[in-house]
Amino acid sequence: MIRLLLTDGHAAAREELRLGLATAPGLEIVGEAGTGDELLALLASAAPTVVLLDLNLPGPDAFALLPALRRQYPQVRVLARGDQSNEHYVSRAFDLGAHGYLLANSLPMELRHGLATVAAGRPFLCTAIGLGLVGHFYAESPASSDAVRSTLGLSKREMEVLGLVGEGFTNAEIAAKLFTSKRTIETHRQNIITKTNTKNTAALIRLAVRQGLLPE
């Protein structure tokens, strides 16, 4: 059973999270916090196994909370939730003690998967950022694209889409660049997710590291 303490600086957002997770099997919400101080006050009594940490949580700064959580509650797993996909921002969250990172606009299904993954002791990175990191590398290293395409089983067009995803373009912008429809790009992105088995994005990152596409 995952004992979840969820946080968000906005009451309406917390309610939305609570309702979205209410029917998730094997999960119990044991507390909610709207500020960093509320989170710290609840930790001992709520005894969560996982904290869903809003990185925009009002004072103290959520990035200051991460090392404190790691030091005082080493048994608690932390899934950070933020609105930035910048790799330095995400890396900082992991460096300070997060066990996973999820974009705030991720779908409820991915949120549930992320919670289950970190609760099981594994790192988690949401699909959008995982594809972006690998796609960015492909865009910068076109010479390796044939080997990468062969390894991951992607078509040339899927590789183009992945590279543009890595550069931060939206589906509509990619469609304009490739002179096709937004729906076609959405189909390509879904095919990429299916072929690379990015239901568990950590597997894609590990594969990229093994192939020398990303630094360890």
Automatic annotation (TrEMBL):
<dbReference type="GO" id="GO:0006355">
    <property type="term" value="P:regulation of DNA-templated transcription"/>
</dbReference>
<feature type="domain" description="HTH luxR-type">
    <location>
        <begin position="147"/>
        <end position="212"/>
    </location>
</feature>
<dbReference type="Pfam" id="PF00072">
    <property type="entry name" value="Response_reg"/>
</dbReference>
<dbReference type="InterPro" id="IPR058245">
    <property type="entry name" value="NreC/VraR/RcsB-like_REC"/>
</dbReference>
<keyword id="KW-0805">Transcription regulation</keyword>
<dbReference type="InterPro" id="IPR001789">
    <property type="entry name" value="Sig_transdc_resp-reg_receiver"/>
</dbReference>
<dbReference type="InterPro" id="IPR039420">
    <property type="entry name" value="WalR-like"/>
</dbReference>
<feature type="domain" description="Response regulatory">
    <location>
        <begin position="3"/>
        <end position="119"/>
    </location>
</feature>
<dbReference type="InterPro" id="IPR011006">
    <property type="entry name" value="CheY-like_superfamily"/>
</dbReference>
<dbReference type="Pfam" id="PF00196">
    <property type="entry name" value="GerE"/>
</dbReference>
<dbReference type="InterPro" id="IPR000792">
    <property type="entry name" value="Tscrpt_reg_LuxR_C"/>
</dbReference>
<dbReference type="GO" id="GO:0003677">
    <property type="term" value="F:DNA binding"/>
</dbReference>
<keyword id="KW-0238">DNA-binding</keyword>
<protein>
    <recommendedName>
        <fullName>DNA-binding response regulator</fullName>
    </recommendedName>
</protein>
<dbReference type="InterPro" id="IPR016032">
    <property type="entry name" value="Sig_transdc_resp-reg_C-effctor"/>
</dbReference>
<feature type="modified residue" description="4-aspartylphosphate">
    <location>
        <position position="54"/>
    </location>
</feature>
<keyword id="KW-0804">Transcription</keyword>
<dbReference type="GO" id="GO:0000160">
    <property type="term" value="P:phosphorelay signal transduction system"/>
</dbReference>
<keyword id="KW-0597">Phosphoprotein</keyword>
